[in-house]
Each structure stands twice: as structure tokens, then as C-alpha cells.
Prior knowledge:
By secondary structure, the protein is mostly helical. Helix content is about 25%, strand content about 0%. The protein has 27 helices and no strands.
Amino acid sequence: MTICRALPGRRVAGLVLLAAVLLVSGTPIVTPAALAAPGDDIDGDGLTEEQEAQYGTDPTDPDTDDDGLDDGDELFHTADPLRPDTDNDGLTDGEEIALGTDVWELDTDGGGVTDGLEVGRGTSPTDPADDDFTDADGDGLSDADEADAGTDPNLVDTDDDGLSDEREVRVGYDPLDPDMDGDELPDGVELCATSVRGRRPATCSLGYGTDPLVPDTDAGGVNDYVEVIGGSDPRDPGDDGNGDFDHDGLTDEDESHTYGTEPQVYDTDGDDIADGWEVAVLGTDPLDPDTDLDGLGDWAEVYLHRTDPLSTDTDEGGVVDGDEVDRGTDPLDWVDDDATDTDGDGVTDARETFLGTDPDDADSDDDGLHDGAELEISADPLAADTDRDGLDDGDEVGRGTSVTDPDTDGGGVTDGLEVDRGTDPLDPADDEFTDTDGDDLSDLDEERAGTDPTLPDTDGDFVDDGQEVLRSGGLDPLDPDTDGDGVGDGDELGKLGAGDCSLSDPLVADTDGGGAHDGVECDFGFDPNLAADDPPLDDDRDFLTNAQELDLGTDPENPDSDGDGLADGLEVVPTGCASPTDPTDVDTDGGGVGDGAECLAATDPNDASDDVDDADPDADGDGLSDERELAVGTDPSDPDTDAGGVDDGSEVIAGTDPLDRLDDLSRSGPDSDGDGVSDAVENAIGTNPYDVDSDD
């Protein structure tokens, strides 16, 4: 170890002061007497391995910071062994010891010019008399030092970060960079985080107490500026993400992890609509400035043209909104779209294509009204009897009855039934209204509709028959789920109280038009009224998404693409069968027996050697041979032994117990309330298939 000379008077005082500081701070002071004993010091710098670990120095390098002083000497002289220039005055600690300057003082002689600059000029850093101290801006840093640092000698704070140039130079910050950590908080606002020697002040009267050298002081995953603006604490990692930095109505957490929007940008897709407004009010995509891809930005659609940002062709005229604006036609008036009208029904071919009507047939639904005439009176050009009252739309127009109201005169008997009985559908006085079950549908109408005149709710969907038949558009009183979306009509109309699936449209399988049926959304916990959160589609409900089916080569519209009796999803991830099979091959092992039959017979559909063409009888036709039923314990004369609503063969394939009716799950049949018990089972045991907790 290099032995450095003892310094005169002021150095001793410095040592005493440092000792006091270190003892107060709880850090043991290193003195020559505390240096390592021979054999404990690998690199010979005067520190034991334990001491090197304590101070963070390298036990194999005698001069960790390469400043010309061994680590032990640095501690003896109170310098920092991890910083080559402890006081940031432009001289290494080794140079300072050699020159007799103070390793902790920028300007040892107090003459106004830093030690490094004096050495560079050739003046003495220990003689204040030769310091030429001119400080034009009065920031405490001489003009000469400012020239050396590159700062402006006429500006107290060159980088305008709230810290004087002198203070930045003194603490080792960059006086030319207002935001050293790049977190968008000026260094002066953050400086309260640390003092000159790395100790945090007890209180901070200015700033946020963040570290100007660390963009995310609390390491919580959100940078300091975002937290400060969003209202969370930049020193508490627990609240990162709860704020709303950009004030767009979405929390930073939701922006980052739910919607994929930028938490620091009010309008991520640049369409001039706040992300929160797009998500909560408009239902548009905050990541796409043109949600419906019609050539008009969302803002232009909503606030300029008043078109629908979720519909490519607002007026349903057959020409997308953007094209109409470009060509000067009105995107709200279908009449001025492409004027070609091949069948002369008053509806352009383009619009007919959009609506699904036949551009070569003036009366697509053969109800006696041209398609154009139907649209004018709000009738459905694809439904001969729009209001399902038993009269075709053309007949209704001829009689003066309403095409959208099944009981035009409101007398209690539907128009069609009045015509059949010879009464006047425009005169309520002659309606003979007998309503045994009090469901607002006459007994005669119930007979016509096929409903039970003694039951107000024939299909058990919690919507009275009268409300279903007389409702505009008409619900099916014989089908508890008119639109076939997996959610009962009553649930969609809110008859069962507020819930995830309440208040969706019982006539539209995909209420929000997001691509997933309402029932699928409810099963996955999504909102059937919010298109943005629709899960992946599984049109045939075979437990594979459409995208997965396209990848596998199966048919996304056919739950059993190869026709082997196993749903495609159950072949890919089997439940009742032993191993996965090929959903595109009816007989995966090529042994001569289809995969479904092997599953039912308990043979291996991937082993051709065990294929046996089992001609054993199946008395009840449930897919299990009588012999197999005896082995399983089911009744060979009863296709559904446990009376759970799912046949024995289907239960064996699905992996449920054919002897336990309570496990006949929704994947093997509708489960309207999502309680894990199929509607069929609930009906069998007398519980409510639309109430998760039937007995409350």
C-alpha cells in the first residue's frame, strides 16, 4: 500500500469532522489501526475481504475506482473508493492527495475557482489569492468554471431545471440536461430525493422526493412523471397504475393491461377523441382512428358527418361512408348511393346486397310488397310477416293494419286471428278477448301460436307469452332463447335482475356486434353490450375458436368436422377418451372403427390393433352397446340413465358421470344461468334454469 503523508491542520480537522459524521450515521470509520492484518487482504490495498464487501469495493483490485489511490488509502483520507473524483472538481482523488487539496471540497482554497480549473489554468488550488473569481450571474460558479462546464455565465440555471448551475456542478449532476433520467420531471423538482453525499433529507419542502437519476424511483413499473400527474405516489410502488396520468378517463393500469392504450397519451390513436370516451361512450376502438375501416375517422363520423363509427355503411345504401363523402353523396341517405336498381323495387342493387335482399327480385320475401316499399314503412323485406301476426305485410297494407304491431286495434286479439274469425282488426270493440292465464294474449291467439292458454309463460323464459308475441319484432313464445345466443329471453330483458347478461337484445345473438354471441360473452365474463371486449369466436361451440379451427383445418361452422361422433375440441383436448385424436380424420388410427365408436367402446382410438367392429346391440340407441352399458353400470334400456338431460353415450364422451344427473354440464347442453348445471338437469330436478341460486 502506498503510504501518503499526513496532512497539516485542516486535514486533521477534516478527519475529526468525518469521524463525527460517520459515527453519527452509524458507519464505522476506517483508521490505520483498522487496516487488514496480513493474509486477509487479497489485493493488498489495506482492506480485508469483509471490509471490501462492507464498502462495496473489489477485493481483487487494490484501486477499485482507478483514481490513483488504493481503496484503503481512500478510506483513510475520507475519500470515496467507488468514485474517482469524490467532490467532482475535475481532479481525481489521487491527484488531490498529491496536490494537498481536499477530496471533499470543490474549491479547497475558497478563492472562488474549483480545484480542477485552477490546475488547468496553472494557478494554485491551495492559494485563494490567485483565483480570478468573476461570477456574472451570481450563481456561485465562477465565469471561468462556467466556461469549463459549458454553462452560460449570464444564467443562474442554464438548463432551466430549477437547480442553479453551481449546485448541479457541486453534486455531480449535468447542468446542461434538465431531465437527466428522462422521466419528464425536471431535476430541480426531483432533487429533494438525495443530498450531496447520498443521504436522504428528513423532510422535503420542495419537489416530490424522487430520484433525478432514476426514472421510476419506487420501481413500481410506472415512471415518476406519470405517477405525479396521475395522482399516485412516485415513492410507493403499491399504487403504480391507479392514477390517470393523461386524464382521458381510463386508469393507467387499464390503459396498459386492458386496452393496450398509452397511459401518457390522452388520445392514443390520434383521432381527436379521448381514449376513455371511445371505450365507455362510443364503443369505438381507442387504438384505431377509423374503427369501422370505412375511410372516415371516428371523430369525423361522430362530430362532422353524424355517421355511425361502428358501421361501414351508415345509410345501408351499399356504398361505404368514406366513399360517399369522397364522391359528394350523403352517407346518411341511401337513395344517392349507386343508382343501379336492376329489379326496379326502389332499392339500389348495392343496398340490396348490403341488406341481403335479392337485387333481381323486386319482392324478396314474396309478401306482396316491393322491397323498397317495405323499407319505407319499416317492414322487414326479408320477412313476409314482419310482426308475426299471421298476415303477410302486403295483406296488412291492403287492410290498413300495421306491419309492425301484431294487434293493430289493441283489442287483445292479433290481426291475423281477427281476419280468420271475421272480426275487424281495426275495431277493438269486436275483439272477443278471453285470457285464461292473464298473459295479455287471448286464448284464441295462444291456440294459434301453439302456446298453453293456461300458462302465462309457456316456454319458461320469464317473459309472458303475450309480451313475447305482441312485442315489436316478436319473440318466440315457444323458445326460451329466441335468438339462440345461449342467454334466455327473460335474462336479456332484465327480468331476472341486473347481471352480466341483462339488458342485451333477445332478438340479436350478438347485441354489441363485436363478433361473439351474447352467451359466449357471458360465459367468459365479458360485456355483451361492449364490442371492444368480445372474446375469440367459436361459432359451432365445439370448444375450439374459429381461428384455432382454421389452423387445424377443421370446419368452424361444424362442431364435428370429421363426423366421428366427437366434437372437434374434445378430439384436441379429450375428456372422456384416453388420448387426443385427429379432428379431421374419422378414424385416427385407421383400424376400421371410428374415433367416437372407439371412445364409447373404451378402446384406444390411436391403436389400430384393438379396433373391433362391434356389432353388439344398442337397445336404447344412446351410442353405448348394451354390453358396454352393463360394464359402465348404466341402463341399456334407458338412453339417459341418470335422467340428467344428456344421453349416456354423450356423457361417456364428455367425461361426465352417466350415473349422476347433476354433472350433466352446460357444454353438453345449454346452461342459461351459468351455474354449472344444464337447463335440462335443472328442469328435471325442479330448479330454475335462469337463476344461479334457485332457493336464494
